[in-house]
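Support request, priority: normal
Reporter: lab tech (M.K.)
Component: structure prediction queue

Hi team, I submitted a job for Cobalamin biosynthesis protein CobD from Geomonas terrae yesterday, and the status page still shows it as pending. I've pasted the exact input below so you can check whether something in the sequence is tripping the parser. The sequence length should be 321 residues. Please let me know if I need to resubmit or if it's stuck on your end.
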Amino acid sequence: MALLDPHIAIVLGAVVMDLFLGDPRTLPHPVVIIGWLISWLERVLRQRISDPRLAGVALLVVTVGVSYLVAAGLIYLGTLVAPAVGFLVALYLAWVSIAARSLHVESAKVAKALERGDLPAARVALSYIVGRETAQLDEPEVIRGAVETVAENTGDGVVAPLFYLMLGGPALAIAYKAVNTLDSMVGYKNERYLEFGWASARFDDLANFIPARLTGLLMVLAAPLCGLSSAGSWRILHRDCRNHASPNSGYPEAAAAGALGVRLGGANRYFGRIVEKPTIGDPVRPLSLEAYAGVVRLMYCSEAIMVLGWMALMLALKVTI
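Reply from support: The job had stalled in the queue. We restarted it manually and it finished. Here are the results:
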């Protein structure tokens, strides 16, 4: 009977739906709606609050609060109609909070273009999933961008939403997605958002603190299941996890670089300016399509270990109680 626990069923069902279906294309996606809310609130709050930091704090509180309450309210209203309806609403919200399949599909467009020998198309495909300029990148640098994106987003697109889903259900997972969306929309260190987006950027760092480190450890555990190096993953994770501007992104990137035996980081071009970043990992192997395939396997294996480990813990707790 323990396997029929609704919370376990929702988490497991959401992961399976994401793996086989990816993001729904014809249904309303909460992240899109949250994005609309953020854009509207930015206009309103900038007009009504003169202090940009205070306006940014209000944006964070209102966006995350509304996202959580609406998600919880929808589940509650569905349950009032019928328990099965509430379950389906919760399952849908949990499903769309996870992005493993979407991350794979979008990054695979880069790899498929390279397999065809079409470097210009690969550069364009990469430009949709990274912030750096891609027009002048050679093939290894394009692959580096794809590997870094999959590694980093294994943390905030897969492990983090699962962490909050497991911890507090679909409403908390949607609240996390609101935090993540805020950071992606206003968490920039430029003139427009340096002050206004400060609270969102810092809260995103806080929300990802545990999931990022958990992702690194999951990758170490997953590496041998993927034909990669667990020892290398642990060594580089320990050595290079802080070689990143983000307090969190270095953990999954270092674990992935060590498992793959590649070097990540280095120079990137943003708005016509070269930015030198610390390197992560050692160039034991070249940045190739094999490295990209390896990081995708690492993402899925890390997700599987997390889900199975959590299910085992939940079932063990039920038995002991």
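Residues 128 and 321 are 48 Å apart (CA to CA). The chain has one domain: 2-320. Let us know if anything else looks off. Ticket resolved.
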